[in-house]
Structure formats: structure tokens, C-alpha cells
Amino acid sequence: MNIVPEITRKSITDLINNQERADGRSLNDYREISLETDVISKAEGSARVKIGNTQIVVGTKSQLGDPFPDTPKVGVIITNSELLPMAAPEFESGPPDEHSVELSRVVDRCIRESRMVDLEKLCIIEGKKVRMVFIDLHILDYDGNLFDAAVLGAVAALLTTKIPKITLEGSEIVIDAENKESLPIRDKALMCTFAKIGDNMILDPSIDEEEILSARLSIGMTESGKICAMQKGGATPLTKEEIMSAVKLTEEKTKVLMEYLP
Amino acid sequence: MNIVPEITRKSITDLINNQERADGRSLNDYREISLETDVISKAEGSARVKIGNTQIVVGTKSQLGDPFPDTPKVGVIITNSELLPMAAPEFESGPPDEHSVELSRVVDRCIRESRMVDLEKLCIIEGKKVRMVFIDLHILDYDGNLFDAAVLGAVAALLTTKIPKITLEGSEIVIDAENKESLPIRDKALMCTFAKIGDNMILDPSIDEEEILSARLSIGMTESGKICAMQKGGATPLTKEEIMSAVKLTEEKTKVLMEYLP
Amino acid sequence: MNIVPEITRKSITDLINNQERADGRSLNDYREISLETDVISKAEGSARVKIGNTQIVVGTKSQLGDPFPDTPKVGVIITNSELLPMAAPEFESGPPDEHSVELSRVVDRCIRESRMVDLEKLCIIEGKKVRMVFIDLHILDYDGNLFDAAVLGAVAALLTTKIPKITLEGSEIVIDAENKESLPIRDKALMCTFAKIGDNMILDPSIDEEEILSARLSIGMTESGKICAMQKGGATPLTKEEIMSAVKLTEEKTKVLMEYLP
Amino acid sequence: MIIILTEGTNLGTKSRDDGRAFDELRPLTIEAGVLERADGSAYLEFGGNKVLVAVYGPKESFIRRFQRPDRAYIRCRYNMAPFSVDDRKRPGPDRRSVEISKITAEALQPAILLEKYPRSVIEIFIEVLEAEGGTRCAGITAASVALADAGIPMRDMVVACASGKVNDEVVLDLSEVEDKDGQADVPVAIMPRSGKITLLQSDGSLTPEEFEKAVDLAVEGCQSISKVQKEALKNRYGE
Amino acid sequence: MIIILTEGTNLGTKSRDDGRAFDELRPLTIEAGVLERADGSAYLEFGGNKVLVAVYGPKESFIRRFQRPDRAYIRCRYNMAPFSVDDRKRPGPDRRSVEISKITAEALQPAILLEKYPRSVIEIFIEVLEAEGGTRCAGITAASVALADAGIPMRDMVVACASGKVNDEVVLDLSEVEDKDGQADVPVAIMPRSGKITLLQSDGSLTPEEFEKAVDLAVEGCQSISKVQKEALKNRYGE
Amino acid sequence: MIIILTEGTNLGTKSRDDGRAFDELRPLTIEAGVLERADGSAYLEFGGNKVLVAVYGPKESFIRRFQRPDRAYIRCRYNMAPFSVDDRKRPGPDRRSVEISKITAEALQPAILLEKYPRSVIEIFIEVLEAEGGTRCAGITAASVALADAGIPMRDMVVACASGKVNDEVVLDLSEVEDKDGQADVPVAIMPRSGKITLLQSDGSLTPEEFEKAVDLAVEGCQSISKVQKEALKNRYGE
């Protein structure tokens, strides 16, 4: 963990208390966003997303697998993230740490609970064979706000994923790699993350802001305005009012983010 | 490991050399023992055992599995113990260390070699499917003498275990979770542990006594008086006479312990 | 890692620059080599090889397994090496480190790429069942040049391996452990390792020489004179001339090594 | 050991799986000081949940990486016993328990006067002996009592409770069945004096209005549970 | 970003799978300075390969075991993204990546003035985002540019390229298909000024004559690629 | 290298699987000083068992957790080669080898003058190259010779041997077949001068009388093996 000098902490906080930010943004602005899809030919779906200098490549791959015993009729989505040691001096090689686990579980919940992908259509033979879709988040450059970038990249990758057609001929499963089809997509969801610094909540914290934030709130919302995921982080409490005004802003900002999707 | 102050070591040893113990027990007394069964509804069998302040919860669960290739006709019992970091300041999280491995292997041998559970009756289809019974020892509070408490708890949990009836209909295995049956129990076995301190062997060492013991001897004995398991520990040798008099005492003391069983 | 005193480094280097070596060998000599086979009765093939004081026991075992999806018609050879903590004060217990991984992968490539074992004959049922042959390298004493000793031992073990006859009766696989047969061997391959010290390349570096070498070059060559494996190591570059003269010497020296094979 | 049931208002609400009113908690008991070796401990039963918590510390930290010059840090481990769930759980941490350990530490941290113990660590071990929906909240509630039992100075207790949406209705304290078949689950932790929120998650589909209602309901539930925490400490230490 | 294609001579040579001449490289682009947090970085596309490299350091080493009193050491990690290959690769190191990490560090080491930074570490992280044959060479070539971008003082660049034997012919720069169906693969790295060889492997069956031809061809390939490295640095820093 | 066979009394005893008398040991050879790098070593063959032991130390310990201010500690690793048993064993420690490593260290410890080397470690590496029943005892017996070969000061040797119950009879030194089909197995280690017991396990079903007989028989076996240990050291170092 970086220990931020007191003077940096103070100057960032003072700016925000004055409704300003070091990079000139207003409290409720995203940094510049860019999104490309189909960047990895060997993936079935892929996206490269940048929010400011934060950069993530997301790839999807499907394969056949067994359904979970308690959900025999639905396919499986598995989200995995790696905070690569390349992405920041403080990241280490090794098995996923708690930050990486939290990231992949929150992204996973945002996608799963939004019911974005119709998992029932990914079932091949009830109780026996389903499609498993892996979403791999490869974090290349960490400059703050991984949650929103990860969800944006994952959703873009899912929207552009082409999986082989699969048909049943008697008890044989025929995988037709020549004929690809899109995933069965329903409602889309995206995520907005806020940081509490000083007396204010700010949108899309940069790395410097993340390092001094007292609380973090990430809200996943569907295109139709439903809250599908939420996660508070950080060591300071929030009031209900702070939370509800973040929800309100998310309604507005996810609409803006949606425009980047393919 | 705790380093025990020399003065503590000396005072405990002097007492024992005078046939006394710090908590007023005689050399061959157990501390207060309590045993409750059916304490965990989701387990198939369970027990909470206390010897002094040492506290263990034991749960059993059965599932279907493959027999070992060299014993195709018998079911499998797997004993696992976790010295939870909660139980003592010196325990650490992580994979089982040598103490935890020794504990679960000694408990396992005591139960297996006593032939307490008729493993042949746990075979469903010879060479293909057998019942596997997991005994999980959850060590909550470590105040000395885990071996005797663990065996007592494990045996109590096994005695109260109810597993689903399984029948074969043709080649189909029918698991009837509504109708439960007891495990096929034969001879029961329990364990007595002795510590050598000063010139004496004492029964049921407390944590303070364990930390200064020079040798440890654990003896498993069946209701019918057969030795089914034995394990010496500690860095000092024992004479054959010391061992045989511990065996003699075990014959008497396992009878007392048996009375706690359900 | 050992830090070699500057004075040792200098004396070894000076000797070699004078075309001499500490143990009296010429630059292109092997130390004394000994090779016994059939040293482990429970292995299907085995060898104990010594080059100088470096000592390795190699054992082979076969079992049935699944072929790799992309090579359904051929058996599998798996080479594993353990730099046992017994073998040198600097070796540690634990999962294989990069030196151990490099060793087993280079030995594996030398054997696989020489096409020494006719893997197609190890296929039992195409795409379903093949023989898997494990080569386990147990490094007991590490006195330099593990590569050449490991390949020599592994090849000797393979040459003396007796596997059970397997026949297909209908869809049944019949393993006849009474009737053993040799592995289907074609061209044999061995390996020569050179170290660059001072201005010279020397053959078969001892432990002292390995610790000060600036580059290492291992060359695997078949009986018919084909290069089947090569691996440069060390932190100093080599010229093409140095490499080609090592290749030339390997042609000569593998012929000498071949004579030790059973 | 104390047992209380929060009485539900039950004013014509749709009946729930286990017959509770929409704002009714499951039976809850908490006991403080149940372990010998730990510096503090608590045992909680909440519906079918059985949770044991031990606290060690504050004590010197030997792990440089985590040490702070100006305060203690919290090391928290949430763990489920293999026999605590329907199908035996393999021992050891999984991704779910790693996440819950992290957010539990964050939920408790604001209440603890960490600045009193520079370079130290406070260890919190949460063992779920039996799980029946709502174990993360049960763990936080019990941990707070165990911290108090350990004599660790705190600004306030922390108390947690979930609400959610089941059969299109916002209800308090989801059981295991409701959690599995329900439409949303909203775990919340608060510091009861200020009412401020130290843990918040939401999982499922909720309109902003439903979400607000869920948070309000959970906060009410926390306030009820808070009384049981105090009762447990009173039973142990007297008034 | 620059794109060059090395023109093959194509003098009546047997055509290859993808129509290249025997001594023709696949299209290659390198861009330096593509990451914000890393001290140096480079992105390379080579045929279907996409490789990203980050460099950190020289910085103080806290791992005693690796620290050297008279120089820096290199810590190198070669890693493949799960989606970089046809069948999803499980995350984390395997034996292949452990070996490649080791020989990559050894291939780069002779070019770096490690003696300038006693007790330090230089970290090199190679991520293969997409693999199509020749990723270890692509990683070394890109790492060298990333090291220069990080301002680490070097004697020379290091540049790598494989040759091999396909359809009984010695050819340059094997594609994935050629690598799989071919008879031999010879990855080579050189320091282009001296022409000295810092990485050499050979995998397959080659006569000594074929091997010598393969090395010569690979060295030529390296010299061509070296120009693209320089171009990439020029594009970033000017002449 | 020496070979001895303890002659069994064979007074009308029931014949065993391999024709031995009830109190007859399998053929045993021990050789000291068989490795170059280790400070001490021994190689033992006992029936079909082949066991190699290396000893390093006493040397400075860098692991704080194990260091003792007033004596050395023992680090012991018992390991089976993958090819040592009928079905290939996966490399690396399993629960069985962890337990045997622990009790082997405890069996050897009373004989070693650890107090001569504060803050140090003595490392004992036991490799089972081939297993045929009784490897833990074989390992202890060989380790004791290796410790002496390393020049580590000892109060006495330690020597180990198992007895057991097969076909309702108490017999000495169970072979692999007898161990598997037998009714009980009792591994014992002693310090031969005092006859005191440093390792004792019992696995199977024995009356106290049978157990006592088994211990007596094992102690006798140990005394015989002790002569082979001394012979091995004499062969290496002379009288």
C-alpha cells in the first residue's frame, strides 16, 4: 500500500471541498473513455477499455461444461480478473488477492444479477451439459476506478461475443465452429463508482483520489433503471442520503456510459 | 511456540513430583468433561465436546464416492481436523501443519483400526460406488489434550449419525433422504493421553502441562479392551514400564469415558 | 546461490585459460561415468547414473491415460525432476523451481524430439486410451552437469523398461502384468553440456566450474547425428563459432557416451 | 444466554415461507465470553445460523507489509465449517469467504479506535458452524460483541442485518430459502448511535424506490438487533 | 505506431502456408511507451502475436535471497492471457512459462548495465495477449524496447527471432501452423551490434548443417527486426 | 558395504509368507558416507527397502520461528520417490509423509546433543527409493548412521524396527505383504544403550499382553540392527 504524503492528501481534499479536482474535472465527470471491441482474434469476444489511463483488455471464451447441481437448466458465466503486476508497482504476482477477488465478484454479480445474458438459452442438455462462458479481465494499467472499466469492458466483450452454433442430433452434441451466433442478450447493465473525499462524493476516482478516499460506493444499474449490484468499500461510513444521491446520479451516468457500447 | 518461563516449568514439575497438580486434580484424573450431540442440524451427525476448556465441534457428512482400487468392497472414512486460528494465539491460518496432520491421522487410526464402523456395509456397488463418511474436527478452543477430546467427539458424532437409506433398483442407486438410518457400528473405541513431566506420567494434560511435557503417549482402546492405536510424541524417551502402566490405566479410564457417549 | 570467492574464480579461470582443469582433466573430457540399470525393482525401468560425484536415480512407470485432444493417436511421456534438498545445501524443499523446471523440460525435449520412443505404438484406443510413461529424475547428489547425467539416466531407464502387454478384446482392455514387453525404441539420443569460462568452452562442468561459468550450452544429439535439442543458459552471449564447435564436439562425445548404455 | 424475538407488526402482510411478518426478524440469541484462550469471544444463533467469533489483540504485528506507524490494522477471517452447509464444503478459503472477510473488516473498522494502538494488529476470526442465510451479517454482529468482550475501545458497536425482495415484496432478514428464491438481497451494517452505514451490498434487481425501502427496513432491523448485543454484554459484565 | 514488412527475396522458393518466402518475416509493428504506471513499456504485433511489456525499476530490492551487493538482478515474468490461445488457458504460471521467464531474463541480461545498480531489481513483465507462434522471441524483442523506454542503460538492444525447418526446408519466423507441423524450431536472440547470441534453443531434428543455416537465417531476421525496434524508439523520443 | 542376516531361532514356529522365523529380520545392509555434497549420509537396504539419508549441519538457522536460543532444532523430511511404490506416487509431501517426518525427528532428538549448537539447525533428508514395508523404521536407523557420519555429537545411536501380529501370531519385522494383511503393526525405536523407547506407534488390534510381547520383540530386533549400524561406521572410519 502506498502511504500518501499528508500534503497531497490535503491538497486533493481542499480542491474537492471547493468542488474542484486536480485534473480539472467536475465532481461528477468521467475521465476520457475509449472502447474498442474485437481486439483479440482468438477470443470469442473481446474489448479494450480505457477510462483515463486505466486500461483493461477483456476476452471471452465459451466451452461445454457441467451445470451446477442446484441449477441444472442454466449455463454458467465465470468472471476472473488478474491485477497483473504489470499494471502498478504495488501489484504482486501470485494468486488473486482480496482486491482482485472483490473486483471479479462484483463484476460477476453486476452481469449475473442484471440477467443480461439469458442463461437458460446456454443450456444444451438439462442437468448434463451447458455452455460455460469465461470472462477474463486482464488489468494492464491501473490508474483508478477498475470497477467501472471492468464492467464496461466485460459487457462490451459479451455484446460482441460469437459462439459456435450447437445442435443436438439424437444424443450427439454437434458443435458447428463454422457458424457462429451471438450470445442471447437481454437487458444491459453498467456500473458507476463514487469516492467520498472530504465532504463530497466524486465520480470515477483517479488513482490519487482512490488512495485517499474514505469510502467507495459502486452501483450497477440496468438500461431499464434497476439497481442490480452495489458494493460499499473503504473504512468510513456513509449516510443514507449520500447513498441515495449516488443512486440518482447513477441513473443519469449509466445512460451516458451506454453510448460507448457497440 | 510458546517459551514457558523457567519458573512456571519448575513450579508445575515440583507439584507433579509431589503427586499434585495446579488445578487440584490427582495425576490420573480427567478435567470436567461435557458432551452434547446433534448440535449442528445440517450435519448428519455432530457433537460438541469439552474437556476442561478445550472445545471441539465435530460434524459428519456422507456422500457417494469411488472405493480405493485396493479395497473395492469397503466404504471410506476420512478424518480432517483444523486447528482454527481462533483456538489459540499460536495457531495460524493456512494448510494443516504437522500437528494438525498428526491429530487427524491418529484419530483416524483409532476409529479405523478399532473397526468401529462396519465399512463393508458402506459399500453400494463393489468396486464402483461406496459411501464416504467425512469426520470434520473443528477445534474451537485449545486448552490441552486435543487427542482424547477429538476421539470422544468423533465417536459421539458417528454414534448419532443418520445417513440416507440407499437401495439399488437395477443399476440405479436410489438415495432416500427421507428415510435415514444409523451407521453400522460395532466395537467402540476411545483414547487416553498421558504426559511425562518430572518423574511421573499424568493423565489429560492441560495446556500449561503440555507446554512443558517431555513425552506424550496416546493410547486408543476398544470397549472390549483391545489396543487399537498408540502414538508417542515429545522429545524424551519412555521406558517400557512407563508405557505398560499407561496401558493399564487406559483400560480403566476408557471405561469411564465410555459413560459420556450417547 | 553460492557466492564464489574472487580468488577461486580467478584460479579456475586461469587454469582453463591455460587449457588445464582443477581435477586434471583436459577441457573436453568427461569425469568418470558409471551407469547401472534395473536398480529399483518396483519401477518398470530404472538406472543409477554417476558423472563424477553427481548422482541421479531415474525410474519409469507406465499407466493408462487419456491422450491430449490434439494428438489422439500417440502415447504420452512425462518427465519430472526433483532437485532434492538432500542433493546440495542450496536446494530447498518445495515445488519445482525454475532450475528444476528447465532441467525436466530440456530432458523431455531431448527424448521427445529425438523420436526415440515410437509414441504411436503406445496408443491403445485412438482418442480414448493411451499409455503414459512417467520418467522421474531423482537428483541425489549435485556435483555439476545435471543435464548430461539426467539424459543418460533417463535413456538407460527407457531402454530397460518393461511394460505389461496390453491387448484389446472387443472393447475390453486386457493388461497382462505377467507378460512384459520393452518400449518401442527407435533412434537413441544423448546430451553434451559445455560451459564457457574465460576464453574457452569446456565439457562437463563440475560444480565449481558451474558456479563461475559465464554461459552454458547443452546439445542433444541422436545416434544418427541429428541435433534434437539445444539450450543455452547463463548471462553471457556466445558466438556462432563457439556454438558450431560445440556441435562438432558433441558428434564425437555422444558416441563415447552411447557406449555406457545397456 | 438470552433469547428475544422481535415482534413483527404483521398488519395484513402477505405471509412468508416461515410465517414471519415482512419486518420480523428470526429468533436471535447472543452470548459473550464463550472461549477460554481468545481475548474476546461471542456465540450467536440467528434462525438456523450458528456463528462463533474470537478476537485476539491488540497485539504487536510482525508483518511489516501490514504494519501502520499510526494505528492498528484489522486482520479478519470469515470461515465456514465443512459441515455448516448442505453439501460438505471443502476446508480452506474460497473466493466468497475472501470477499466477505474483506468487507467485514471494512464494516467493523470505523467503530474501532485503531489509532490507540500503533504498529499493532487486531485479529477477528469468524467461524460459521451452521449456515441458514445471512451469515455475513450474523458474523459482523457477533464480531462486534467479541470486540467489546476483548475490551477493545470502540466508538460504537456495529450491527448488521439484511433485507431483500421476495415475491415482489420488500422484507426483512431473508432466510436461506428466501435468499435463494428471492429477487434481491441487501446486507447492511450500521453504527447504531449515528445510524451511519458501514456495510452495504445489493444483489438482485431493485428499483431505486425499492432499494431505499430495503435500506430503511434493514436499518430498523439493525436497531432491534443492537438491543440484543447490549443485553449480551450486560449479561456478561453487569450494568 | 509504425508498420513494416520485411520484403522476402522469394527467388523460386517453395511457397509456405501463408505465402511467405523462406526468409520473409511476418508483418511487425512496435510502439514504445504505451502504459501510464510502468517506468517503461512497449506493445508489439508480429503476425497474429500481440505482446505487451512493462518494465519497473531499477528499484530497491527487498528480497534478500536475490539481492546482489555489486549489481541489480532481473526479475522476469512471461505470462499468457487466458484468451490468448485457442483453448482457454488457466491463469497462473505453468512449467512452460517458468522456463521461458528464465531464458528471457538470461537473454536480456548481457545487454543491461546491471553493475550500475547494486542491491536493486529490474522487473520485466511480458503479457502475451494473443499468441500465434513465436511469442518468446516477440517478448524479448518488445522487452528490449520497454527497457530502453524505462531509461535503463544498456550496452546494446536485444532482438529475437526464430527460424526452423518446415517441409524439409529451413525457413525464417515460423507461424503457429508451421511451428506445430514443422520439423524443427530454433529461437535465437542476438545483440545486433556484436552479433553475439544471447538466447539459443533448438527443438526438433536438424543436421548440423541445417542447424547452422537456421542460425544464420535467424540472425538475419534479428537484424531486420532490430530496425523496427530503433524506429519505435525514434517515434517516441525523436532522433 | 556389509550384509548380515539375523538368524531366527525357528523352533517349530508357524512359517511366514517369506519363510522367516517369527523373530527373524530381513537381510540388512548399511553403508555410511555415500554422498559427496551432504555433511553425512547413509544408504540402507532392508529386505526390499532401499533408503538413502543425507544430513546437513549443524548450521546457522535463518528461520526465526524455529530458532532456539539454547539449542539446535531438527528439520526432518521423509520423502518417497515416485517410483518407490507399486502405483506411481505423486511427487511432494502428503499427510502420511508429514506425520512420519514429525515422529522421525522426535525419535532421533533424544540422542542428539542439540544444546551444543544454539540457534542452529540440523537437517535430515530421508529418501525412500524403494518401499517394501517398514520404511519409517528403516529411515530412522539410516538417519542415525548419517548423523554419526556427519560428526554430530550423540548420546547414543537410535535404531528402529517394527513388530506386529500376523495370522494371530506376534512376529518381528513385517514385510509389505504382512503389513497389509496383518492384524497389527508396532514400530519401535530405541536408544540401544539404555533400551529406552524414542518412537512408539501401534496400529491394529492387540491385547495388552500381545502388545507387550510385540514391544519386547521389536526391542530385540533393534538390538540386532544396532550391530549393523556399528559395523557400517567401523567400515567407514575403522575401529
What does this structure look like?
- Chain A has 262 residues and is α+β, with helices and mostly antiparallel strands.
- Chain A has 5 helices and 12 strands.
- Chain A has helices at residues 6-17, 98-113, 146-159, 207-212, 240-258; strands at 33-37, 45-51, 54-65, 76-83, 123-125, 129-141, 162-169, 172-182, 189-197, 200-203, 215-222, 227-233.
- In chain A, the strands form 3 sheets. In chain A, strands 1, 2, 3, 4, 5 and 6 form a 6-stranded mixed sheet that branches.
- In chain A, a hairpin with a 4-residue loop joins strand 11 and strand 12.
- Chain D has a 5-stranded mixed sheet with strand order 1-2-3-5-4. A 4-stranded antiparallel sheet of chain D has the order 7-6-8-9.
- Chain D has helices at residues 95-108, 135-149, 176-181, 208-237; strands at residues 28-32, 40-46, 49-60, 73-80, 120-130, 159-166, 169-172, 184-191, 196-206.
- The model of chain D is unreliable at 1-7 (pLDDT under 50).
- The relative contact order of chain D is 0.19.
- The longest helix of chain D has 30 residues, at 208-237.
- Chain D has 239 residues and is of the alpha+beta class.
- Chains A and D meet through helix 2, strand 12 and helix 5 of A and helix 1, strand 8, strand 9 and helix 4 of D.
- Strand 12 (227-233) of chain B pairs antiparallel with strand 9 of chain F, so a sheet runs across the interface.
Structure characteristics:
heterohexamer; A: alpha+beta; Ribosomal Protein S5, domain 2; six-stranded mixed sheet; four-stranded antiparallel sheet; 36% strand; D: 239 residues; five-stranded mixed sheet; 4 helices
Q: What is this structure, in a nutshell?
A:
Chain A has 262 residues and is α+β, with helices and mostly antiparallel strands. Chain A has 5 helices and 12 strands.
CATH architecture of chain D: 2-Layer Sandwich
Radius of gyration of chain A: 20 Å
Strand content of chain A: 35-45%
Q: How would you describe the shape of chain D?
A: globular
Distance between the termini of chain D: 15 Å
Q: How does the major sheet of chain D shape up?
A: 5 strands, mixed
